[in-house]
Amino acid sequence: MGDKVLVLIKPDGLVKSLTGNILTRLSETKLEIAAAKIVRVSRELAVEHYKFLSGKPFFEDLIKYIQGEYHSRKKVLAMVYVGEGAIKKVRELAGATNPEEADTVSIRGQYGRITTKGVYENVIHASSNPEEAEREIKLWFQPDEIVFDIYPTEVRDVTEKKRIWSSATGKS
Ligand code: UDP
Ligand code: MG
Description:
About 30% of the residues lie in helices and about 15% in strands.
């Protein structure tokens, strides 16, 4: 199966209508897409995702950025790709963290920017190593949202409150 990698198209990528372009470039890698969904990012999810950066001066701005607080679209597109060298391939396509240092043909080099607050709005996230990929994928996705069994699962009886579709007919 090869590597697994969590890929996020961040709120700036959605605002700039880059989704189609980025999906095309990801499909050119010949990696296989295993999961995809649009997510409204809670503060809790944002903080857990970026927990290793919590001591950085830009941390609070980074949390606001990934939550879409600086953009009109408060959502991200979260995906899982699998395949040989998936992490390396997607990170190469993404380019360097700092969009000004990123290769000009990379996604971050082409579309990223540094804000006046100093946040790197770099359009795309990709896990940096297999351990981070596993942690991030398990944070963003439940097993049933991924079409392959990429990590071991177990079946348990769980009772939880869950929002379901209302039985009343919608008016819209
Ligand atoms: N970031 C930033 N300023 C920095 C370093 C990072 O704004 O000096 C942001 C940027 O959006 C980056 C994210 O924090 O994508 C996560 O940082 P990381 O070092 O993990 O870089 P990445 O793995 O995304 O290349
Ligand atoms: Mg990283």
